[in-house]
């Protein structure tokens, strides 16, 4: 089953559109063993309420080689739990380097099922990512309009719309309900969600910024299709560190966010 089909299946059968983000901050733990245990515990505790999981590569890379080993463990554990994995790496570069990124993060030993991708080196540089994702039934999420308040300094509405049109074009010929070329649109921009939904009708939208950045489930309905499919709302700190390092609190936060999204959509 492709990534797009697998998350949509979880949405329909488990009634969840929540993407649980894993951003393990080294300074929150006694040592690496503690970070590892808590991260894997949060993953397991929140899995029943999640459509997918999104490890942020920066936090794993910051730990060096042990971080990459842990990332492999996280991906393997997610698979055992039936959770599709989005690696949030925001990769992008000239073609030859983009190919290496695509091999590493979409087909390599610590590959995810999907990868976030930066389009700002030009649309041609997306090709290796699209091809690697297609070859493996995976997906990419292209940055269209990021969640941070200063995104408009560089992205701007015209640029974001142009990227959105390209995302739709890249996915247009793919089979299936949703294409393997999706888009990142911040949950912090609820006023723009209807526009981006209409510009990219068959793209899965990844909506980061739920919780800690101020995004709310109630405002996200325009990103979804009738029936509540087509988008994944993502929260990291609000789940992993819902109340200090309490795993029970992480579980309850995931359950609450899942329920809030369902209340807004069903
Ligand atoms: O536009 C974007 C794209 C990615 N992110 C990443 O998502 C999480 C958000 O963390 P929270 O704790 O839920 O705020 C983090 O890994 C970001 O790098 C984003 O925030 N916005």
Automatic annotation (TrEMBL):
GO terms for biological process: 'de novo' pyrimidine nucleobase biosynthetic process; 'de novo' UMP biosynthetic process. The keyword Lyase applies. Residues 17-252 form the Orotidine 5'-phosphate decarboxylase domain. Keywords: Decarboxylase, Lyase, Pyrimidine biosynthesis. The active site is at 90 (proton donor). Pathway: Pyrimidine metabolism; UMP biosynthesis via de novo pathway; UMP from orotate: step 2/2. It is an enzyme of class 4 (lyase). InterPro entries: Aldolase_TIM (IPR013785), OMPdecase_AS (IPR018089), OMPdecase_type-2 (IPR011995), OMPdeCOase_dom (IPR001754), RibuloseP-bd_barrel (IPR011060). Its EC number is 4.1.1.23. It catalyses: orotidine 5'-phosphate + H(+) = UMP + CO2. SUPFAM superfamilies: Ribulose-phoshate binding barrel. It holds the Pfam family OMPdecase. One of its GO terms (molecular function) is orotidine-5'-phosphate decarboxylase activity. Belongs to the OMP decarboxylase family. Type 2 subfamily. NCBIfam families: pyrF_sub2. This is Orotidine 5'-phosphate decarboxylase. The gene is pyrF.
